[in-house]
Automatic annotation (TrEMBL):
InterPro entries: ABC_BtuC-like (IPR037294), ABC_transptr_permease_BtuC (IPR000522). It comes from Nocardioides soli. GO terms for cellular component: plasma membrane. Keywords: Cell membrane, Membrane, Transmembrane, Transmembrane helix, Transport. PANTHER family: FERRIC ENTEROBACTIN TRANSPORT SYSTEM PERMEASE PROTEIN, FERRIC ENTEROBACTIN TRANSPORT SYSTEM PERMEASE PROTEIN FEPG. It is a multi-pass membrane protein. The lineage of its organism: Bacteria, Bacillati, Actinomycetota, Actinomycetes, Propionibacteriales. The chain crosses the membrane at residues 12-33, 66-84, 96-115, 121-140, 238-266, 273-294, 306-327. This is Iron complex transport system permease protein. It is found in: Cell membrane. GO terms for molecular function: transmembrane transporter activity.
């Protein structure tokens, strides 16, 4: 029987996913214990259930940030899986091919020009991310679609967009420049329920869309000829996946800023844990949630009492992962 992943399920897939979920919940619970002082496991559990003196602190201060780490990490993992399936390349990730930086450009422009509300920033992020995706995809289609060409073009676009972002920050007013520079590091610090209600709803809708597209996505990942003969309309299929993938990345960027390397690493780590042949969505989402939750816990504890932006941790860990991935790709050849 086929799972919602679009691939046959198996014991290792189930065991791997359960293991990731249990580990992620343990990390989340430990993070809920962390604050100016550590709460005991009993106090934390009582607070979650609405009892004890720690209830307000845990449910109103700590829980929104922990929930954001899990949900945003899952969204980044989904986005990474989408683009790695589209490109058939482990380097096909929104932060590598310029989509995350472009979403940040949209947020910067809206913030600098309109002093944007949360809705305006989110809209600007999505529009700019989609515009970059259209440019990269259109250039990659010339002479026949190629995943490797898309990755190379995306890296070039990423470099240009990053330079544009730096220029926008330099030209902005001092207050805007200071705020956007701090935001560009990617941070979940200070997140509350008001910040995440709409993003959570958007990510849930995007995840449903991806679940419905999963089977077709894995058919297309087997090759254009095979996908076409099995009835897949590649053009509309790829466009829909690009919109859904960019939507996941842009939603996270609009709230937390660009958080790098989770989308790159989560799909491949999830694939190896579950022994999947392709790049399935569910392991990628679960691994992304675990990676971002663990990174946020490190960001809060390494430099107590002043927490680091979580993007600094994911960048450091992701850089090491990228070096390892490149070495493995070279050895295959």
């Amino acid at each position: 029987m086929r799972s919602v992943l679009g691939q046959p399920g198996g014991p290792r897939l189930v065991v791997g996913c359960v293991g990731i979920v249990v580990t992620g919940l343990l990390v989340a619970f430990v993070t809920l214990m962390h604050g100016a002082t550590w709460s005991t496991p009993g106090e934390t559990l009582a607070g979650l259930l609405g009892h004890g003196e720690q209830t307000f602190v845990i449910t109103r201060w700590r829980a929104p940030q922990v929930s954001a780490a899990l949900v945003f990490g899952a969204a980044l993992g989904l986005s990474g899986a989408v683009f790695q399936n589209l490109t058939r390349n482990p380097l096909g990730s929104p932060d590598i091919i310029g989509l995350e930086a472009s979403a940040f450009t949209g947020a910067l422009v809206v913030t600098a020009c309109l002093s944007g509300t949360a809705a305006q920033v989110a809209t600007g992020s999505v529009v700019a991310g989609l515009a970059a995706a259209v440019v990269v995809y259109a250039l990659a289609r010339k002479g026949g679609f190629s995943g490797m060409r898309l990755v190379v073009i995306g890296i070039a676009v990423n470099a240009m967009v990053t330079a544009t972002n730096q220029w926008l920050v330099i030209r902005a007013d001092l207050e805007v420049a200071m705020a956007t520079t701090a935001w560009s590091a990617g941070s979940l610090n200070g997140t509350d329920w008001h910040d995440v209600r709409l993003p959570f709803a958007l990510i849930a809708a995007l995840a449903v869309g991806l679940a419905l597209s999963a089977r077709t996505m894995h058919q297309a990942a087997l090759g254009d000829d095979l996908a076409t003969t099995s009835g897949v309309r590649l053009g509309p299929h790829r466009l829909a996946l690009v919109v859904l993938g960019v939507g996941c990345t842009a939603t996270v960027t609009a709230v937390a800023g660009p958080i790098s390397f989770v989308a790159l690493a989560a799909p491949q780590i999830g694939r190896r844990i579950t022994g999947s042949a392709g790049v399935p969505l569910l392991p990628a989402a679960l691994t992304g949630a675990l990676l971002l939750a663990a990174s946020d816990l490190l960001a809060q504890t390494l430099t107590r009492p002043v927490p680091l932006p979580v993007g600094m941790i994911t960048t450091a860990v992701g850089g090491a992962y990228l070096i390892w991935l490149l070495v493995m790709e070279v050895r295959k050849r």
